[in-house]
Amino acid sequence: MSEPILSARDIVAGYVHGLPIVHGVSVDVAPGEIVTIVGPNGAGKSTLLKAIAGLVVFESGTVTFGGRDVSGRPAHEMVKSGIGFVPQTGNIFTNLSIQENLIVGAHTVSRADLRLRLQRAYEHFPVLAERRASAGRVLSGGQRQMLAVARALMTDPKAIMLDEPTAGLSPKVVADVFADLRRLTELNVAVLMVEQNAKAAIRISNRAYVLTEGRNYIAGTPEALLNDPAIGEAFLGGRRTAQASGAG
Ligand SMILES: Nc1ncnc2c1ncn2[C@@H]1O[C@H](COP(=O)(O)OP(=O)(O)O)[C@@H](O)[C@H]1O
Ligand SMILES: [Mg+2]
User: Fold this and answer.
1) Whose CA is nearest to atom 24 of ligand 1?
2) What pLDDT, on the 0 to 100 scale, is given for residue 238?
3) 44: CA distance to ligand 1 center in Å?
4) Neighbouring residues of 211: CB distance < 8 A, sequence distance ≥ 6
5) Domain boundaries along the sequence of the chain
6) Distance from the CA of 112 to the center of ligand 1, in angstroms?
7) For 88-106, how does the pLDDT look when each residue is reduced to its tens digit (9 = 90+)?
């Protein structure tokens, strides 16, 4: 791995001061890397992303971004400093048009830049360009995720965090969303995501972390994690999922 742009060290965080859910987790992401976090329900994966994003009670630990200490900063400062966050639900405005969703995402961007950013979003996601005047609610699940990602990219973040971007999507659409994320890394964006579609996500990742009970359990390359039978059985859905997921 090259030098990480986003580095979280020993993060302790939760929803109520003094009752942490995340008990000292560390993760790193380098520019152009996709790093995936998997683990059982309730392991604290979402809480970890929210802790980095400045959305929950940050007890201790260090978040370094681009060499700057941004530990425990509030969400708007994180966005300003260049970390985008796509939460699991409620990540688009269904009553606004696609273009309006993108513009809302770019509220910190100057008028001149806004035109360029819209153009870039539509080049990157042509399906959004075709439907730019349509309300968010008419989009399919996969298109909504694309819009959520496109919206987060409007501020030109250097890192983007996504919480279960493929939740509820069909396997074909899951593959489309992952392909879009893979293309993002060509812009040298650092991608940190939490995924339940663990095997498929790990396959398109540079590295992955398994979290359990608010702690780092194991981390490694896709090959190391996917070929470890103990990890597969316990954390990646076991053999049944491997067969059901088919060729990826
Ligand atoms: N808004 C919340 N308020 C209080 N506790 C929460 C909240 N969201 C999640 N939790 C608790 O935090 C723990 C970890 O949740 P979460 O980070 O969502 O896990 P994961 O994303 O790995 O499934 C769970 O025990 C859950 O009940
Ligand atoms: Mg979660």
Assistant:
1) 42
2) 56
3) 6
4) 25, 37, 38, 39, 43, 44, 45, 48, 217
5) 6-245
6) 40
7) 887 899 999 999 999 998 8
